[in-house]
Amino acid sequence: MKARRLGAWIAIAIGASYFIVPLLGTLEFSLRMRRDAYSFDAYRSVFSDFQFRETFGYSMMMAVLTIIFGMLLVVPTAYWVRLRLPQVRPIIEFITLLPLVIPAIVIVFGYLRLYNSSSILPLTGSTSGTNMLLMFSYMTLSLPYMYRAVDTAMRAIDVRTLTEAAESLGARWPTILFRCIFPNVMSGVLSGAFITFAIVMGEFTMAALLNRPAFGPYLQLVGANKAYEPSALAVIAFAITWLSMGLLQLVSRFQKSAPAKA
Predict the structure, then answer these.
(1) 16-23, long-range: CB within 8 Å, 24+ apart, which pairs?
(2) Between these two residues, 22 and 139, which has the higher pLDDT value?
(3) Where is the ABC transmembrane type-1 domain (predicted)?
(4) How deeply is 188 buried, as exposed, middle or buried, from its count of CB atoms within 10 A (0-12, 13-18, 19+)?
(5) Fewer C-beta within 10 Å: the chain N or C terminus?
(6) Taking the CA of residue 111 as centre, how many other CA atoms within 13 Å lie in the half-sphere pointing to its CB?
């Protein structure tokens, strides 16, 4: 028994070192910008860079918009499928899994062919149209995670009973959706939102091919031209990802302990 426990702890230590040691090495290297001394010069250089602030703010804005529009798309769809169209649920689940199978570069090239400046809907012909296309691209990438999170939260409540109770009190569909369903699946929405946020902040392919000033292409640009700043940016990106994961775990705990709202 003790040998099993020791073996398990050794396996855990090896697995943890596989992830932690490179991160510690990256952190240590990011502090070596000043000769013969540790300093935060690389971080100061990053935060003082106007392009960093611009790209980080742009990706933050795109993440918020992606979360809002993704939520407005996924929650009514999952609700309607569970309530009225359970027979098409396998089809919906298959569609939501497609972004995991189709590479991002294939998706964005398809968008460029469909929505170029010579098409019926020339979204790439203007800055606002390209931003909209990028947001839809991010929604496509985050669809598997957002839909799974919302669908899991919806399984924990009795959608039919809540709907019938609201209808018996004279509530219309918008009221049912936004005042009965949304509050009860909010933990699932937040779980999907944190994952979406992490995806948008680090995504490179779609933003680069659509020529948008996002944080992912900026990471690549700095990595190709500087030495210590890329390590600082990697640590910052790791911090953002781990913060999202921590908030996701916190929301999951609330989801298990919170009762359904009638």
Answers:
(1) 23/235, 23/238
(2) 139
(3) 56-249
(4) buried
(5) N
(6) 25
Q: How far apart are CA 57 and CA 65, in angstroms?
A: 12
> CB of 176 within 8 A of CB of 74?
no
Q: What is the pLDDT of residue 166?
A: 87
Instruction: Give the pair of three-digit tokens for residue 104.
Output: 């991002």
3-state secondary structure the chain: CHHHHHHHHHHHHHHHHHHHHHHHHHHHHHCCCCCCCCCCHHHHHHHHCHHHHHHHHHHHHHHHHHHHHHHHHHHHHHHHHHHCCHHHHHHHHHHHHHHHHCCHHHHHHHHHHHCCCCCCCCHHHCHHHHHHHHHHHHHHHHHHHHHHHHHHHHHCCCHHHHHHHHHHCCCCHHHHHHHHHHHHCHHHHHHHHHHHHHHHHHCCHHHHHCCCCCHHHHHHHHHHHCCCHHHHHHHHHHHHHHHHHHHHHHHHHHHHHCCCCC
What CATH topology corresponds to 41-257?
MetI-like fold (1.10.3720)
Tokens of 48: 């003082």
- Distance, in Å, from the CA atom of 229 to the CA atom of 38, rounded to the nearest integer, reads 14
In one-letter notation, the amino acid at residue 10 is I
